[in-house]
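TASK: fixed-backbone design
INPUT:
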Protein backbone atom coordinates (compact mmCIF):
# COMPACT_ATOMS: atom_id res chain seq x y z
CA UNK A 1 0.00 0.00 0.00
CA UNK A 2 2.90 2.34 0.77
CA UNK A 3 4.30 2.15 -2.79
CA UNK A 4 0.88 2.90 -4.25
CA UNK A 5 0.50 5.94 -1.98
CA UNK A 6 3.97 7.18 -2.94
CA UNK A 7 3.21 6.77 -6.64
CA UNK A 8 -0.09 8.63 -6.25
CA UNK A 9 1.61 11.49 -4.36
CA UNK A 10 4.34 11.66 -7.02
CA UNK A 11 1.76 11.83 -9.83
CA UNK A 12 -0.30 14.47 -8.00
CA UNK A 13 2.78 16.64 -7.50
CA UNK A 14 3.52 16.42 -11.24
CA UNK A 15 -0.09 17.32 -12.12
CA UNK A 16 -0.04 20.32 -9.76
CA UNK A 17 3.28 21.49 -11.20
CA UNK A 18 1.95 21.13 -14.76
CA UNK A 19 -1.17 23.13 -13.86
CA UNK A 20 0.94 25.86 -12.26
CA UNK A 21 3.11 26.14 -15.41
CA UNK A 22 0.00 26.25 -17.60
CA UNK A 23 -1.62 29.02 -15.52
CA UNK A 24 1.65 30.98 -15.62
CA UNK A 25 1.90 30.62 -19.42
CA UNK A 26 -1.70 31.75 -19.92
CA UNK A 27 -1.13 34.76 -17.67
CA UNK A 28 2.08 35.71 -19.51
CA UNK A 29 0.28 35.53 -22.87
CA UNK A 30 -2.54 37.72 -21.51
CA UNK A 31 -0.01 40.29 -20.28
CA UNK A 32 1.70 40.20 -23.65
CA UNK A 33 -1.56 40.89 -25.51
CA UNK A 34 -2.53 43.64 -23.08
CA UNK A 35 0.83 45.41 -23.19
CA UNK A 36 1.08 45.09 -27.00
CA UNK A 37 -2.44 46.44 -27.56
CA UNK A 38 -1.89 49.32 -25.14
CA UNK A 39 1.38 50.18 -26.92
CA UNK A 40 -0.42 50.06 -30.29
CA UNK A 41 -3.14 52.39 -28.97
CA UNK A 42 -0.49 54.88 -27.86
CA UNK A 43 1.28 54.70 -31.23
CA UNK A 44 -2.05 55.22 -33.03
CA UNK A 45 -2.72 58.34 -30.97
CA UNK A 46 0.74 59.68 -31.83
CA UNK A 47 0.25 58.91 -35.53
CA UNK A 48 -3.03 60.83 -35.57
CA UNK A 49 -1.49 63.75 -33.70
CA UNK A 50 1.36 63.81 -36.24
CA UNK A 51 -1.10 63.76 -39.15
CA UNK A 52 0.10 60.34 -40.33
CA UNK A 53 -2.97 58.43 -41.52
CA UNK A 54 -0.78 55.74 -43.10
CA UNK A 55 0.95 54.98 -39.79
CA UNK A 56 -2.44 55.09 -38.03
CA UNK A 57 -3.83 52.61 -40.56
CA UNK A 58 -0.84 50.30 -40.26
CA UNK A 59 -2.35 48.89 -37.05
CA UNK A 60 -5.34 47.51 -38.99
CA UNK A 61 -5.17 44.08 -40.64
CA UNK A 62 -5.44 44.02 -44.43
CA UNK A 63 -8.90 42.43 -44.08
CA UNK A 64 -10.05 44.69 -41.22
CA UNK A 65 -13.52 46.18 -40.97
CA UNK A 66 -14.23 49.53 -39.35
CA UNK A 67 -17.76 50.65 -38.41
CA UNK A 68 -17.95 54.32 -37.46
CA UNK A 69 -21.14 55.77 -36.00
CA UNK A 70 -23.66 56.76 -38.65
CA UNK A 71 -21.75 55.27 -41.58
CA UNK A 72 -21.57 51.98 -43.44
CA UNK A 73 -18.81 49.48 -42.68
CA UNK A 74 -15.46 50.35 -44.24
CA UNK A 75 -13.58 47.25 -45.42
CA UNK A 76 -9.84 46.84 -45.79
CA UNK A 77 -6.83 48.74 -44.50
CA UNK A 78 -6.66 51.17 -47.43
CA UNK A 79 -10.31 52.13 -47.04
CA UNK A 80 -9.75 52.72 -43.34
CA UNK A 81 -6.66 54.84 -44.04
CA UNK A 82 -8.63 56.92 -46.57
CA UNK A 83 -11.43 57.42 -44.05
CA UNK A 84 -8.99 58.77 -41.45
CA UNK A 85 -6.96 61.05 -43.78
CA UNK A 86 -9.24 64.10 -43.33
CA UNK A 87 -9.05 63.79 -39.55
CA UNK A 88 -5.28 63.25 -39.55
CA UNK A 89 -4.71 66.08 -42.03
CA UNK A 90 -6.72 68.62 -40.03
CA UNK A 91 -4.60 68.49 -36.89
CA UNK A 92 -7.10 66.59 -34.78
CA UNK A 93 -5.91 64.78 -31.68
CA UNK A 94 -7.22 61.36 -30.64
CA UNK A 95 -7.30 60.24 -27.02
CA UNK A 96 -7.95 56.54 -26.37
CA UNK A 97 -8.72 55.12 -22.93
CA UNK A 98 -8.74 51.33 -22.69
CA UNK A 99 -11.17 49.98 -20.10
CA UNK A 100 -10.58 46.25 -20.58
CA UNK A 101 -8.73 43.75 -22.73
CA UNK A 102 -9.78 40.11 -22.80
CA UNK A 103 -7.27 37.71 -24.35
CA UNK A 104 -8.55 34.65 -26.23
CA UNK A 105 -5.24 33.37 -27.59
CA UNK A 106 -5.02 34.46 -31.25
CA UNK A 107 -7.72 37.11 -30.70
CA UNK A 108 -8.24 39.75 -28.04
CA UNK A 109 -11.21 42.01 -27.38
CA UNK A 110 -10.71 45.59 -26.23
CA UNK A 111 -13.35 47.99 -24.96
CA UNK A 112 -12.82 51.60 -24.08
CA UNK A 113 -13.66 55.21 -24.70
CA UNK A 114 -12.27 57.91 -26.93
CA UNK A 115 -12.20 61.67 -27.37
CA UNK A 116 -11.36 63.63 -30.49
CA UNK A 117 -9.97 67.15 -30.04
CA UNK A 118 -9.89 69.96 -32.58
CA UNK A 119 -6.53 71.69 -33.19
CA UNK A 120 -7.54 74.35 -30.64
CA UNK A 121 -8.20 71.72 -27.94
CA UNK A 122 -12.01 71.54 -28.04
CA UNK A 123 -13.64 68.11 -27.71
CA UNK A 124 -15.47 67.58 -31.01
CA UNK A 125 -16.43 63.94 -30.51
CA UNK A 126 -16.41 61.37 -27.73
CA UNK A 127 -17.83 57.93 -27.24
CA UNK A 128 -16.94 54.28 -26.86
CA UNK A 129 -15.38 51.57 -28.98
CA UNK A 130 -15.24 47.81 -29.20
CA UNK A 131 -12.23 46.35 -31.00
CA UNK A 132 -11.35 42.79 -31.93
CA UNK A 133 -7.59 42.34 -32.33
CA UNK A 134 -6.00 39.47 -34.25
CA UNK A 135 -2.54 38.09 -33.52
CA UNK A 136 -0.55 37.97 -36.76
CA UNK A 137 3.05 37.42 -37.82
CA UNK A 138 3.36 41.24 -37.63
CA UNK A 139 1.99 41.43 -34.07
CA UNK A 140 -1.47 42.39 -32.84
CA UNK A 141 -3.60 44.00 -35.57
CA UNK A 142 -7.10 45.43 -35.47
CA UNK A 143 -9.44 42.98 -37.19
CA UNK A 144 -12.83 44.53 -36.36
CA UNK A 145 -13.47 47.99 -34.92
CA UNK A 146 -16.82 49.51 -33.95
CA UNK A 147 -17.01 53.11 -32.79
CA UNK A 148 -20.08 54.61 -31.15
CA UNK A 149 -20.27 58.36 -30.65
CA UNK A 150 -21.96 59.76 -27.58
CA UNK A 151 -22.53 63.11 -29.33
CA UNK A 152 -26.20 63.61 -30.11
CA UNK A 153 -26.99 64.78 -33.66
CA UNK A 154 -28.18 68.28 -34.17
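OUTPUT:
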Amino acid sequence: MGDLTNQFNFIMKKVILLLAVLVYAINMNAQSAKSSIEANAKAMQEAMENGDAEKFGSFFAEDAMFKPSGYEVIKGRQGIVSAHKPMAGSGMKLEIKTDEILDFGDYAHEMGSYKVYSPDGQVVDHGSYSTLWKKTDNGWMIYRDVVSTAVKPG
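COMMENT: The helical segments are 2-49, 53-57, 77-89.
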